[in-house]
Amino acid sequence: MPIKCRSEISANRWALLDFNLKYGRTGYDQGRFAEEFKEEAVKQVIERGYAVGEVARRPGISVQRLYMLVKVYSPNATDRYEAELKEVRPEHLTLKAELRRSQDERDILKKAAAYFAKTPG
Prior knowledge:
This protein has about 120 residues and is mainly alpha-helical.
């Protein structure tokens, strides 16, 4: 299953990036690495959390090349955290309301303590 780039890149730009990844800008690697290999290397970095240098060292791909692959194939940061944000938002709103209630109660108790401290008897 190929990794899809979720960012808003035009079809022409994507084709150019794909060509550059396959053949290299200078023609240095001339399609040396298969598409499946590239996808697996990127998965190891993004999904499994391996260091880029470690993944690059195994098959002999350059660290710079792997960083470029990760940049092209990785999903946009906003897309990655959007689901987490949707999960956390209701709890955040609940906690915010609870904090406001607690602050109001504290303020009432401070005023009551000040009132009873002034009142003789």
